[in-house]
């Protein structure tokens, strides 16, 4: 069930009547406003603006969604490839005028290398779980040129857990990393299958990058435990 693609195409084709609802393993229900995916550069948060300004050379936009980042870069005369495994998202990108789109799973996309790989809107979440981060970074390395870069953002969701008197946090009694969150999306009465999304604190990302022969540089921190990082080959 391509929930995201259905919603994006509806908005693109003037059929916007409701937003996406998300349910998470953190016992939270949230709303994702569809207009958020169609914002222009001046409407984007500072982290995304900074990320786009750091792009250079040929660019791969992984998990492109409605293509707002790719569209901006294309308008700035960059050669950009928009990649997503959502048929609806890719069709939305086509309708918005993005010239180079690719419908494929991230791990199946092979054979091309880029100067910049872009992973925005908590793009690190595509790794799904912490024990899959090494595999994720290993594949990322096959997509960048020798002097290439990966621009990625994520969030440390430690703030979502209760604080004790000593300033520590009460984490759930589970075997997994606290930043592993399971989601279900709902749109117009249809629900997605459950899927995992990884929110990774910077120190954990830095250790994983080092283990995969990547430099990890903190570029900017956001206002709410979010951050932008740059990975480059050692």
From TrEMBL:
EC annotation from Swiss-Prot or TrEMBL: 2.1.1.222, 2.1.1.64
Keywords: Methyltransferase, Transferase
Domain of life: Bacteria
Top-rank EC class of the record's enzyme: transferase
Name this polypeptide is given: Class I SAM-dependent methyltransferase
Organism listed in the record: Meishania litoralis
């Amino acid at each position: 069930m391509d929930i995201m693609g259905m919603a994006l195409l509806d908005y693109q084709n003037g059929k916007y009547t409701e937003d996406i609802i998300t349910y998470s393993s953190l016992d939270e229900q949230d709303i994702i406003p569809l207009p958020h995916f169609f914002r222009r550069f001046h409407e984007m948060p500072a982290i995304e603006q900074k990320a786009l300004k750091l792009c250079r050379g040929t660019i791969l936009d992984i998990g492109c969604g409605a293509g707002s980042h790719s569209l901006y870069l294309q308008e700035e005369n960059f050669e950009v490839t928009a990649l997503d495994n959502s048929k609806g998202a890719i069709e939305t990108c086509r309708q918005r005028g993005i010239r180079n789109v690719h419908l494929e799973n991230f791990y199946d996309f092979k054979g091309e290398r880029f100067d910049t790989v872009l992973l925005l809107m908590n793009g690190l979440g595509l790794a799904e779980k912490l024990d899959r981060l090494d595999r994720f970074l290993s594949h990322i390395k096959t997509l960048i040129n020798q002097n290439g870069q990966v621009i990625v953002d994520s969030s440390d969701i430690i703030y979502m857990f209760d604080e004790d008197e000593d300033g520590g946090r009460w984490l759930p009694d589970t075997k997994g990393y606290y930043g592993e969150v399971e989601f279900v999306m709902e749109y117009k009465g249809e629900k997605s299958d459950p899927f995992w999304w990884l929110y990774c604190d910077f120190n954990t990302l830095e250790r994983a990058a080092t283990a995969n022969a990547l430099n990890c540089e903190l570029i900017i921190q956001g206002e709410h435990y979010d951050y932008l990082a740059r990975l480059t080959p050692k």
